[in-house]
Hints:
By secondary structure, the chain is α/β, with parallel strands linked by helices. α2 (58-72) links the parallel β2 and β3. The protein has a single domain, classed as Aldolase class I (TIM Barrel, Alpha-Beta Barrel). The radius of gyration is 18 Å and the shape is globular. The protein has helices at residues 26-39, 58-72, 87-100, 117-129, 142-145, 151-157, 174-183, 197-202, 217-229, 232-250, 256-266, 283-303; strands at residues 10-12, 43-46, 77-81, 104-107, 135-140, 163-168, 188-191, 207-210.
Amino acid sequence: MRDISKYRGIFPAFYACYEPDGSVSPARTRALANYLLKKGVKGLYVGGSSGECIYQNVAERKLVLENVMDEVGDKLTVIAHVACNNTADSRELAAHAQSLGVDAIASIPPIYFHLKPHGIAEYWNDISAAAPDTDFFIYNIPQLAGVALTQELLAEMLKNPRVIGVKNSSMPTQDIELWEETGGEDFIVMNGPDEQLISGLAMGATGGIGGTYAVMPELYMKIMELYEAGDMKTAAVIQRRVCHIIYVMCSAYGNLYAVMKEILRMRGLDIGGVRKPLPAIIDADKTIAADAARQIDEAIAQFC
Length: 304
């Protein structure tokens, strides 16, 4: 059986870190990686939606991953999302990720053109072939990608021995059970929607990968700790608090990632803003960020 222990836990989705001029910042990337390491997370998911991957070129995405790996690659489990909207660039990023020694790569399906299942499978297998010694995660996020993973497509992908799991960001938690049933006993499913970590764990998720984890990792780690200890009642209370905090952050004019970066800036970690066309925060959003930060602090003080 496959050892899945290195994928069991909380994985913040890594944020894009920029200099004031908007360029990718190696120093700020390293600072965020070190910050999350010290928080005690299990690993990092680099280059995904939270990393603003669709707004970065291949060279920038390589630069981010290189600095994350240099800073924490031997201390945390690192999953690198390598998908681009063409196969050649995706393969280049996959080969680069393997050369750096990441634990796994991951990929969404191609977006814009909604390919048939055989086209998606060929895309994923082409990417995986460029990193033949590296684990591969399918990233299922139909609400953004426009196509959804099916049991039939997953069964086809399981012919590739490097396919070990799914990062599942679809909203129905039933999907987690379906992927595990199709994948088998040692198949890994990571819960994606932050608002339902406890539900995903209850359906069998190995851990969680989330975009809001980096601003409150303590709370997500506590949810998982309590779930594993059998204290579902307290875990559910914290999950509801987390959901409310997310709703507050989403109420801003600026993009959610811009608000979370403002919260980190308030903590003394300045990793810049967001890249257009994502809306930056406005002055009124700073009050929202401060309110969310206060609620995070209160929840950590109460439960952690």
